[in-house]
């Protein structure tokens, strides 16, 4: 999928502002962004549900509005799209009939833990069960490219991991996946390529490792309002320390045994009780918040 200088406006508001994006074959591409960043508009244009106001979009080499794309794509909407009275198994069998070589509906129901609910009307399924049924419908036609919009929203841990297994299986089979999610750990675990957009533009992209970097951090929790400048004075030159959010402390620099000893000694001298003291790499959530800010949208 290739997007070049994409523009989408709603009246005077520009939702997508010259966006450039490439999703490679056989990879999971995660598109991340805060609410109102332009993710949904971009994806709906790629799915053929909206038309752009400028720029070009090619999906599997075709215009998104080309009917020839329909049997080659799988689309999982965030909500809706299923008749409320239809039974889960019935719906999956109906969708399967639109494709020449669909997956086995019963096998998909079993994979996603829906076999016991095959005769349950859609409206009586829980939110998580509805999500899993939508995921099954998106992949049953053996698509070449799948759009997954918040696929694990509202799912319990077991169902979430089952969905992750489906996404991993798609990639292993050579299927391209475009994933939008607010779950940073999900994007970090599943994606080969991450694109962060804000205000309708790409603000960063790369592999999860490229975005998070190789540097390690020392993290701990303690009472809010510690004198971070005083702590920094005890650390080796080139170190950085901050409280973010309140009561959570992050130290960067030459993280190793000496720094760990220095921090614990300083905390002991200041009668500070620490919790959850650990060394780890910067997470995708850290990068996301640095790029897009912490304010609510």
TrEMBL record:
SUPFAM superfamilies: P-loop containing nucleoside triphosphate hydrolases
PROSITE patterns recorded: ABC_TRANSPORTER_1, ABC_TRANSPORTER_2
UniProt main location, coarse: membrane
Gene Ontology molecular function terms on file: ATP binding; ATP hydrolysis activity
InterPro entries: AAA+_ATPase, ABC_transporter-like_ATP-bd, ABC_transporter-like_CS, ABC_transporter_ATP-binding, P-loop_NTPase
Positions of the ABC transporter domain: 1-224
Name recorded for this polypeptide: ABC transporter ATP-binding protein
